[in-house]
Amino acid sequence: MAEKVLTIADSITVGELAEALNLSVTTLVGELFKNGIAATINQRIDFETATIIVEELGLDVELEKKTTEGAGPERRVHELTDKAVDRPPIVAVMGHVDHGKTSLLDAILGQKVVDGEAGGITQHISAYQTIRKGRSITLLDTPGHEAFAALRQHGAALTDVVVIVVAADDGVKPQTVEAIRFARSANAKIVVAINKMDKETANPGLVKGQLAEQQIVSDDKQWGGDIPMVEVSAKTGAGVDELLDTVLLVADLEELKADIDVPAEGLVIEAHMEVGRGPVVGLLVEQGILKPGSFLVAGTTYGKIRTLLDFAGKPLKEAGPSTPATITGFKEIPQFGDSFELFKTEKEARTRIAAAKLENERNAASTNVTGADMLKLMTQKSETPDFNVIVKADVQGSLTSVMDSLRLIETGGQVNLHVISSSVGNITENDIRLAADDKTVIYGFNVDLPPAVKRLATRERTEVRLYRVIYELLDNAKDSMEALLAPEVVETVSGTLTVKGVFRTLKDQVIAGGEVTSGKVTSGVLVRALRGDELLGEAEITSLQREKVESKEVFEGDLCGFSLKTKRKLPLEIGDKLEFFTRELVTRTLK
Ligand code: GDP
Fold this sequence. Notes:
This protein is an alpha+beta fold. The chain is built from 14 helices and 30 strands. It has a six-stranded mixed sheet with strand order 7-8-6-9-10-11, with helices on both faces. Strands 13-14-17-16-15-18 form a six-stranded antiparallel beta barrel. The longest helix is centred in the middle third of the chain and has 20 residues, at 346-365. The chain starts with a strand and ends in a 5-residue tail after the last strand.
């Protein structure tokens, strides 16, 4: 047991953590940097990172996550006004592979999914809408573990109801249990669809019994629980309408509402680039109404909605709460999971972006990276790191599932996954020996680590990681691979200027004036001085004036005065060009 237990929230700023740990900020920043994280005092790091850092520092402190009431991800609460209107429920359909999730969605949606390519836009969006008795239901599809984990991270707060599909001839399986966990952590209501009822081998009673073991107890008279279970056949369509009615009934008890007289907000649920169309972005509206022509900001990019399409690619006049929509018009691709906000004018949108970027630049400009560190990073050979694993699982089926999912982790060629061996059964001394001479991680899924083997593993310093939930194993593998990536140095030029006058040149300062020839000039960013192609030196802009008034930023076409902090004398002359840029250490992530 650690001597001291510290309770911290989901994330904490570097400054706060340093204080809590009684460490200097520099020590902490240094340790983070060693782990590939370039963070400044005010940046937040998540609980997991904090835990790793504390471990690496060898502190006798244990971190404990502060649990919020009700546990699980907090719903993004929008204060509702009296004018709030009913909104469609957002339903995630989940289940074990081959239990008929896709077939059930097809049965619910009819031809609509197949028609998804209408309008020339390839639909990758995994959100659909159907109508039952004049009411809309939004369905989120979660194919594969990747999407499952992603939904868990970003979409949990949006999910009202989880439909758990269980095949009546196969019963509860590992991913069924994962789906139950997801629903609970998302505080979503559960409806069970017992599928494949047309099969002779269907045994709904057995399924209910197995679910009861997971504390999911049917609300029928015999079981007396509170979870609605509907027997369906995706193949014949039997029970599908009843399932939708049940979903609506469950949703009604939740009184799902949203405001529409407010600026639209929601979540980016899909984004990709398309030739001829630019960024194509899938959104799920939480509140307000999207219309073509509106300006949207997501993360640090923005755009004017050029086309607004429904999930099937049909043009929409507007998209209200709970509606999945596909839009074009973004300048760049936003990130999956970014929130978006609507602005009436381009100016407001740009102001918001400028503020977001400025915030990023501030953080970047003050990043505590020494020149030597930077040089090391810049000259580092970019050899692709290897991630070696040995995989053990309880049965062949789950082994296949783990192996397939591991291989699906998209590394973009940045990390090589080497499977040293994979087999069924508990972890053995042989596995440890196999791993011993390498930096190999042993993953065990639903298997045990016998005490004698554990002792050997400790002696050999072999890492054995045991999991009972597949996506937790995958998350860990992905995190481990990301940890192998060295951070990248990214320079972003924000503007250029031509020097029109030099007022004072000191050893470590230049005061001059000029005209912004492109982009913008922001106080605080880095500056490169060029005479033709010759680099005169680098500096930092410490103050900026427009028409003799101190300004934070000055745009293309403007004249401005400025002061540069230089390391050595920088003999600027009229006609020299200044390039303004930020330099950032970016932790690389697997796409
Ligand atoms: P998913 O992996 O959960 O998306 O499962 P799929 O929808 O791909 O279905 C897996 C297999 O089960 C396919 O061969 C389907 O044709 C079959 N299947 C799905 N639903 C039913 C059903 O209600 N009855 C029968 N007999 N087969 C089904």
